[in-house]
Amino acid sequence: MTKKITALKLQKRNKNRVSVYLDDEFAFGLSKIVAAWLKVGQEITDEKIKQLQEQDNIELALQKAINFLSYRPRSENEVRKNLKKKDIEDAVIDEVLERLQRGGLINDLEFAQLWVENRSEFRPRGSRALRMELRQKGIHDKIIEKVIINIDEDHLAYQAAAKQARKYQQLEWQDFRKKMYGFLARRGFDYGIISSIIPKTWEEISSHDNR
């Protein structure tokens, strides 16, 4: 069964969508990019209508994903979870993710590298904490190991401790050591690294106080 397109009209509330009229009656709406190949007078089958609506679903999901990505970089798993929450079908999500990957809008390796760089600069973490955070983002273990293999945990632990030490500088040694240990452990640094960093930062703030 075929129907004739009798009108194609931009929607007043959303200029990115087109209302499609078949046999002089409104039939459905489509994204402009999907409706671009249609023309008034064209005859389309039920099968073609189904294909257009499937393409439209993908386009709508793609725009939602792009909007989600506009706030900050996201992992593939974050995008997938966000689309699932919007009740989008798995097949549509798979197609959207493939398009985003081809367009370079999602890349888990780049995401993980950026995550580690950002953490290292602003909130230093040990490799244990970084692994946990990246796994929560759905990053594969192979990628995680690739991006953290070259981090200098001693340097990162020192950076974190030196900044935090200012808050503890009025404490006695035992309290300083206890609080600093807890702080660095929560940041994912190992005992061996913590043990070498704490005396160093204590010595530095002590010598500064004695000037």
What does this entry look like structurally?
By secondary structure, this protein is an alpha+beta fold. The protein folds into three domains: 2-102, Orthogonal Bundle (Arc Repressor Mutant, subunit A), CATH 1.10.10; 108-148; 153-209. Helices cover 63% and strands 12% of the residues. The chain has ten helices and four strands, in the order E-E-E-H-E-H-H-H-H-H-H-H-H-H. It has helices spanning 32-35, 46-69, 76-85, 90-102, 108-122, 127-136, 141-148, 153-168, 173-186, 191-209, and strands spanning 2-10, 17-22, 25-31, 43-45. It has a four-stranded antiparallel beta sheet. Helix 6 runs antiparallel to helix 7 and helix 9 (173-186) crosses helix 10 (191-209).
Short description:
The protein is an alpha+beta fold and 211 residues long. The protein has helices at residues 32-35, 46-69, 76-85, 90-102, 108-122, 127-136, 141-148, 153-168, 173-186, 191-209; strands spanning 2-10, 17-22, 25-31, 43-45.
